[in-house]
Structure formats: structure tokens, C-alpha cells
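Practice problem: predict the structure.
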Amino acid sequence: MSKSNLILNNEIIEDQWTLVTIPVSEDTVVRKQAGKVVLFKLTGEVIHTPEQIASTEIPAKGKVLLPLSVWIAHKDALADRLSKGEIAVWLDTHEPLELLAEQQADLNVFPLISVHVERFADGRIFSIGNLLRTRYGFKNELRAFGDVLRDQLFFLKRCGFNSYLIRADRSAEDALASLKDFTEPYQGAVDINQPVWRRVHRGSN
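Answer:
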């Protein structure tokens, strides 16, 4: 059995979910702007065709982690499996959360929502985690996967993530240790909503 790179609630566990991805088109065009390759997709940009979405194979059994667009296309047929806790969704950082909320008012029907970060420098994942926990009230497992590195975990946790699938070429044990890099965060955030000066009371000299 291969070594797991999944961290959930401060421990390394085996992944119970089957990740489904949309087939890549052979006609993928290199995107350029001002003569340079564009590395980050624009928020709201549509990158998959209806044909690609329709051709995506969904396992008939087990816990399945589906791309947001695939779940939307098949949501009625998957309603029973969703009610049994077998369906979760993942979205890319360029996909607007409003699209998910429009399709499902109560996001807590999903046992897991996962956010894929294509390149570690894409900071939108932090805002997405924050919004899922605060504006949309999501309380279940919130996972970051893709180009997820050790140095990001502490800050992803601050934004509401409690699950991290570490990049395959990195150590999950080393990444797990990074969650203790700082013992007392200064700012308030999703995980600890009050700043340190409200949490720590120092006696007068």
C-alpha cells in the first residue's frame, strides 16, 4: 500500500474518496496575453465544454469526489447518493462559489468540499476557504489539494481548511509538523476569531 499524503484534523489518514477529473481536451490552446503565457485562469472562466463534462465517468459505487460542473450536470441523478454521504464536490480556484451556492443552498449536505489549487502562488484558495466557513456556513471537511506545500498549511488552517492532500513529491509528516510552526497567531481568523490582544491578558507591571 502506498503511503498516504492526506492530512485530516492533524493526523495522516488514508483517503476514502475517489477523485474524478474531467478528460483533457486535445484541442487545449495555450493562453497568452501581451505575448506571455497566462498561468492563472480568470475567475468565472469556462474551460470545459459540455462534451467534456458529459464524457466524464462517475464510479457507480463508493465515495466519489466530483468536479463542480460534473455534479451540477448530474445532480438530480446523484441525489440519492448525496443523501447517503457518497458524493462530494471539488472546484478550481477560478470557479466562483456563487455557482455552487446557487445549485445547493445548504452546503452542509456535502460531507466534503475540496478546492484544487493548480499553482501554489494562486492565493484565491485562501479567500475561498474563508468564504465557505463564514459567508456560506460550511462545517464539514474542507480540503485543499493540488500544488499544496508545507509552508501553506498553517495559513490554510487559519482560513478554515482542516484537510490537506500534500503534493505527491513532498512529505506528509513534514507538512503535518508545519501546523505547529506558530503557537499563538496574532490576527483573528476563521480558526481563532479574536486577535491575540483580546485572548491574552497580561498583568500590569
